[in-house]
């Protein structure tokens, strides 16, 4: 477990370095790649449960949604639909495309299952991931601030994981969810949230004076905001554990050496990305 946590941190900080060097284009490309890999593994787990999603169609639509959102902002900024409204429209088009596709595929008794599982994969992974792109563009005048807000999000959820692991291993006595993740404890949860709050505050304390965070995203605000984000991250992690248990697998894949699959790496980001976007949009207005 500790080795897995260290590997996760090393990989995430390497990715943060790439984002810092190459900016928004690299951030959007990386977000799209991770979303597609996660979606691929998610569809694989659904298949192990007996469902039959359209993997290639779902992944293609998911990637098109993410890249389309970025293209609108950079190539056609005057397009009448933008931001979350554009993504909602792209999601609607994805539903239409899947409904048309399902008319000509699979046995009649499997069509509804295939349609539902395909759309669930699109809504659960790329649609949720697109909120990272929304955060990248929260401050058009200072693009690095959007990138650093995503860094803050990643630091908070990953330090929560590590803090929960260390505290839970040391003093964990009361199981939080024994049927889903037996190693998680309530003591570990409290410790993880505390560590996440401290990490988020320190990040803003260090980089805030360098104008890398909005002026109204103070150290105190970052510490308080980290609490709900960390808690949602724990829920997001538990959901992935529940899915893996239903699929009867330990890791979602083998695409990330030392960790498992892409889903194992991004699990806590899926639910926290939209939550963080809503929180930032409210706090930083």
Question: Could you give a short description of this structure?
Answer:
The protein has 285 residues and is mainly alpha-helical. The chain has helices spanning 2-48, 55-74, 83-102, 111-124, 126-136, 143-171, 186-207, 219-247, 262-283, and strands spanning 175-177, 181-185.
3D architecture notes:
The chain starts with a helix and ends with a helix. The protein has a two-stranded antiparallel sheet. It has one domain (2-283). It has helices at residues 2-48, 55-74, 83-102, 111-124, 126-136, 143-171, 186-207, 219-247, 262-283, and strands spanning 175-177, 181-185. The longest helix is centred in the N-terminal third of the chain and has 47 residues, at 2-48. It is globular, with a radius of gyration of 19 Å. The model has no long low-confidence stretch (mean pLDDT 88). Helix 6 (143-171) crosses helix 8. Strand 1 (175-177) and strand 2 form a beta hairpin. With 285 residues, the chain is mostly helical.
Structural class: mainly alpha
Number of individual domains: 1
Terminal CA distance reads 39 Å
Rg over CA atoms, rounded to whole Å, is 19 Å
In what range is the share of β-strand residues?
Answer: under 5%
Q: Which overall shape is indicated by the principal axes computed on the Cα atoms?
A: globular
Which sequence of SSEs, written as H and E, runs from N to C?
HHHHHHEEHHH
Helical fraction: over 70%
Number of helices: 9
Q: Largest sheet, described in full?
A: 2 strands, antiparallel
Largest sheet, spatial ordering of strands: 1-2
Q: Indicate the mean pLDDT.
A: 88
Runs with pLDDT <50, length 5+? Answer: none
Would you count the extended β strands for me?
Answer: 2
């Amino acid at each position: 477990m500790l080795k897995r946590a260290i590997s996760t941190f090393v990989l995430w900080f390497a990715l943060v370095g790439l984002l810092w060097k190459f900016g928004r284009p690299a951030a959007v490309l990386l977000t799209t790649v991770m979303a597609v890999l996660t979606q691929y593994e998610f569809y694989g787990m659904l298949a192990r449960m007996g469902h039959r999603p359209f993997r290639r169609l779902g992944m293609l639509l998911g990637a098109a949604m993410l890249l389309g959102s970025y293209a609108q902002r950079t190539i056609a900024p005057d397009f009448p639909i933008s931001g979350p409204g554009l993504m909602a429209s792209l999601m609607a088009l994805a539903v239409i495309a899947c409904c048309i596709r399902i008319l000509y595929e699979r046995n009649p008794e499997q069509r509804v299952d295939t349609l539902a599982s395909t759309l669930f994969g699109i809504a659960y992974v790329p649609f949720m991931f697109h909120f990272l792109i929304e955060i990248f563009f929260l401050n058009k005048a200072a693009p690095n601030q959007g990138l650093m807000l995503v860094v803050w999000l990643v630091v908070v959820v990953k330090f929560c994981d590590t803090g929960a692991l260390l505290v839970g291993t040391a003093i964990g006595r009361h199981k939080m969810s024994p049927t889903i993740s037996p190693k998680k404890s309530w003591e570990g949860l409290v410790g993880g949230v505390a560590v996440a709050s401290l990490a988020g505050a320190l990040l803003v304390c260090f980089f805030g004076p360098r104008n890398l965070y909005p002026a109204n995203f103070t150290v105190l605000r970052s510490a308080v905001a980290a609490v709900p984000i960390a808690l949602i991250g724990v829920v997001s992690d538990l959901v992935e554990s529940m899915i893996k248990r239903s699929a009867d697998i330990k890791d979602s894949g083998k695409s990330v050496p030392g960790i498992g699959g892409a889903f194992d790496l991004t699990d806590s980001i899926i639910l926290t990305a939209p939550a963080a976007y809503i929180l930032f949009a409210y706090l930083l207005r």
